[in-house]
Amino acid sequence: MHRIIPSQQSLRACAAPAVIAALWLAANPATLSAAAGGGGTMETVFKLVNFAILVGTLVYFLRAPIAAYLASRSAQIRQDLVTAAEMRSAASAQLAEIEKKMQALPGELEALRRQGAEDVKAEQARMAQAAADERARLLEQTKRELDMRLRIARRELTELAAQLAVGVAEERIRRSITPDDQVRLIDRYASQLREAR
What we know:
The protein has a domain at 8-102. Helix content is 92%, strand content 0%. The protein contains four helices and no strands. Helix 2 (29-36) packs across helix 3 (41-176). The N and C termini lie far apart (140 Å).
């Protein structure tokens, strides 16, 4: 809370009647003696003159500081009023902006909802494409593995068939070749070696 200091004009307005009253009492001693009860009129006059001098001195010396204070206080109040007006206009502008955004909010929400739905569809399409690509890759890999296993199985089967054929042939040869045939084969082989030398 600010102390309210009277203005220079109000001090002058208060001092002027006091000075006038003191001068009037000094000019009319009968009134002064009646007011004082008949005695000590000069004493009352001196008190009133002293009071008038005190008021005049206070007005003279306090006039400039009080005027400066009142001027600065007036300027401060004006500045506070300007600041309050600016703050009010800024608050009104912010409130209008908020109301504008609130009015635009349903449209923005609808746009976000549409965008979200489109994003979900795009993500589903991307996932479906990724799943199809993965399926094709797995099928291709499985086909390659099956082909490789089939080739290995064929080779193993061929080797087994060859081994079985050799075993069967060997068994037939053992049953059909006599010891005389063996001697004859060894002699033929030896003769072929000699001719080759």
